[in-house]
Amino acid sequence: MRLLARYLMQKAKIPFVAVLLAGTSLSVSARAMQVEQSQHEIVGGEVVSDLSSFEYKHTVRLLVKGVLDGKNIPDSIKGLKMSWRCSGALLSKTVVLSAAHCFPRSIGIKDPETGEIVRGEMTGLSAEAFFKTDTRADRPWGVKSQKIVIHEEFRDDWVSRVGNVWNPSESIHDIALVKLSEEASTDKAPVGLLSKQEVQLSAGEDAVLAGYGRDISDDQVAIPRLRRVSVPMREALRNATEWYVGRGDLLKAGKVDRPGGGCVGDSGGPVFVKRSGGVRLAGVIVRGPDEQNGGCQASVTIVTAVPAYSSWISQRMEELARP
User: Does an H or E element contain 316, and which?
Assistant: First the structure.
């Protein structure tokens, strides 16, 4: 798969971690533009064509929308409508699990006149869910979100709050739920979570990453399609709430010959593992190295570990089920 290395209109300058929408800088040159910021796309895998596969049944494409506002935002870009893509996994017919950074409440953005970075607010955040293998098979509008629940301890500027971005000892809490206004299509199904009672994640076991990354090169824009890639689980990070997966080197990240893992468009996408009871959701794709450290070709993907948040997910699911 081709590597997505830029936004649709202007490339953002992201200081270190290449997968965060919130807390990064964005150059804006037009009032109507679509942003593919720091979300991941599957690299080194294959397009999912089997509609009976677990990757297809459980994975959702999300289109997130927001409006730029805030007292620090110049009038020339205030009110800018923005949209970007993420992925997610169905936990029920109306609830999607995704990444918290897909729904930023604030964002660092470059003033087009002064070149300075200013902090803006993202208002009116909403999402639409799509369920087919690519946009050609889907209807032009998705199922709208009814409510978005972001983990209470997630911070948009978490990068500036931790001592080690690569392997933080602090938990990032990059996890969120989206309640849909309608049920998912009938060919979709909820996935079971990896519970604490089952065999837990172990270094070296196979995991499958899935997501609707959008493939873009300088001379063409490809249709976003569902892709999958098999990668090894490597080790838990120091915070014990995240794992590093892939064949790359976390400590010396750089491009590898045969990359495989997440890249632009896949943030929030599922990490599946197999257990005796069937396929389980073990993680959520959240981030990876920036371009200077190999980017999407480094084969290093950081994922939020689902078992660490089983209680939070259960509690929020109960709340969302109430009328």
Answer: helix 310-321
